[in-house]
Write a structure and sequence with these properties.
The structure is a single chain. By secondary structure, the chain is α+β, with helices and mostly antiparallel strands. The chain has a single domain (about 10-100), classed as Thyroglobulin type-1 (Invariant Chain, Chain I). About 20% of the residues lie in helices and about 10% in strands. It contains three helices and three strands, in the order H-H-H-E-E-E. Strands 1-2-3 form a three-stranded antiparallel sheet, with no helix packed on it.
């Protein structure tokens, strides 16, 4: 089933392919009405030990979702707001061009 919704595209189509998959649709609304759950990036940060060296520490927006650019040591990559990595986005020694994967709102 193919659904195209321009209004919801920024949040539901992180692959920027004009197709909203079931996974993308469900992720968009997974946290909307449930105050018991923390946004995914904030939840991941609460599970980590900030004192451990060499461990990946996710970068979050103020509202608790993942920032588009994530880096660990000398390697960086692009993710959607739920932390899912875009294929072939990893680069070494520089920031990736995450804008090619869609529009992100970082706060």
């Amino acid at each position: 089933m193919r659904i195209t919704l321009t209004f919801y595209r920024r949040d539901t189509d992180p692959g920027n392919d004009d197709v909203i998959t079931l996974e993308e649709w469900c992720d968009c609304f997974a946290w909307a009405d449930d105050d018991r759950h923390e946004p995914p990036c904030h939840a991941a940060k609460h599970l980590e030990d900030p004192h451990l060296l060499g461990v990946f520490h996710p970068r979050c927006t103020l509202d608790g979702y993942y920032k588009p650019e994530q880096c660990h040591e000398n390697e960086c990559w692009c993710v959607d707001k739920y932390g899912r990595e875009f294929e072939k986005s990893r680069v070494v020694g520089q920031l990736p061009d995450c804008g090619q994967y869609g529009t992100f709102v970082s706060i």
